Amino acid sequence: xxxxxxxxxxxAVPPAHAxxxxxxxxxxxxxxxxHDALVEGxxxxxxxxxxAELDRAFRDAERQIEKGGDAWAxxxxxxxxxxxxxxxxxxxxxxxxxxxxxxxxxxxxxxQVWIEGKKLWVFRDLxxxxxxxxxxxxxxIDGRPAPEIIEKITASMPRDGFSxxxxxxxxxGWRFATQLVRVLGGGPRWTMELRDPRTGAREIVTAEGRSxxxxxxxxxxxxxxxxxxxxxxxxxxxxxGKIARLxxxxxxxxxxxxxxxxxxxxxxxxxxxxxxxGTRELILDLRGNGGGQDELGRILLAHLVDQPFxxxxxxxxxxxxxxxxRYQAKADTVPADFVEAWKDGKLHCVKHPNWGRQQPAxxxxxxxxxxxxxxxxxxxxCEFLSHVRDLGRATFIGAETGGAYVGxxxxxxxxxxxxxxxxxxxIPLMRYDxxxxxxxxxxxxIQPDVPVAATIEERIAGKDPExxxxxxxxxxxxxxx
Length: 481
Prior knowledge:
Layout: E1 21-22, H1 24-41, H2 51-64, E2 69-70, H3 71-83, E3 91-93, H4 96-104, E4 111-116, E5 119-125, E6 137-141, E7 144-145, H5 146-156, H6 166-170, H7 175-184, E8 189-195, E9 202-208, H8 212-222, E10 233-238, E11 243-248, H9 263-277, E12 281-285, H10 294-302, E13 309-310, E14 312-317, E15 340-341, E16 347-348, E17 357-358, E18 368-373, H11 380-390, E19 395-398, E20 409-417, E21 424-434, E22 450-451, H12 456-460, H13 465-474
Parallel strand pairs: 11-12, 12-18, 18-19, 19-22
Antiparallel strand pairs: 1-2, 3-21, 4-5, 5-6, 6-7, 6-8, 8-9, 10-11, 13-17, 14-16, 14-21, 15-16, 20-21
């Protein structure tokens, strides 16, 4: 059910090209269309942002438009305004042709970075032959100071609520290089000012940009361990089966080549194996898990509890159809057999598999649970983790999650091509309210009991301090902790 932004552009939308330019009034018109579409269709639009704040953000964006420009220029105005919704599933994308250019041919910064606060570090150097830039602090790129770059990129990216880790963690992969172009431009050559943290020496270096496919190829050759895992989950048993480490990279996908074993069925088998081993300590590794199918989070939770539970308090959609459908080749509609119209004028998703009272699953794991999480733990992952936190069922290790504790807005996503610039606004249509107890800071993510922040040196060396902490705690008897 959880959808990231699906396709950047509907097939019937006329393509936009880099040379296309728009008047200031056309840009302002598209801002108003985007604002009104969000207010009409997004059921969580004021969950973490007041209507007054949202309106002000779009008015400020309009005032920034003093003259016409191209789609890149418009993106740099509208993206920060849309980010004020504080919903990680709500985003604006470049028109299809420009998005394809960015991800296939544009000469990107040939490095992956690591962000720590307002500091920027080279994590993977894909430019020099020996990769010696890795571990150096990036003081500036093309003359722009690193704190300014981080601030501008952060302002343009969506996130749930007020999580302080979400954006930085998501930028650790290729997102930084592409977002750098979206927000600030650059290429085909890149100039960086670097500082060696050991000696303090500074140098100015210039690198030839490479396309994203080229960079991915180089990364695979130099750092095969960085490649995405072939399967969505894995389990390993340690200390003669006393400890199990269950890693779930994403909530969905196949566990075999033929696709006949899906993750939900595999989880049932995994917990049967845990039970057979007599395991008493479970390390649940959900770092980097951006979510997936709603019901898989509920299935996982059902193996950790021994009493019936409610998963969602409500699932709300504003309406079956929306006026912004006139901008789409085919207007989106909500499946009628999935919802019921209530007296509040909203649609409620009563046919969702997680709706209503849920039952525990067998075998039930009753031992200690240690959760590894980070800012890329999002969406379905955070729904599960919110329940685990609410039930006091685990010790949380790592960093604040990227998803908010109280729920998110996702599910069905409507893509709205803006009529003039052809940028595409992705609006999630279903608000997920979790059946958890209220907290003082509902807009924050799940907080760690044991914060662990790996240094850039540890990451480059391949160390895993979060796992080391979890193993140490799992191997320590309760009375000794």
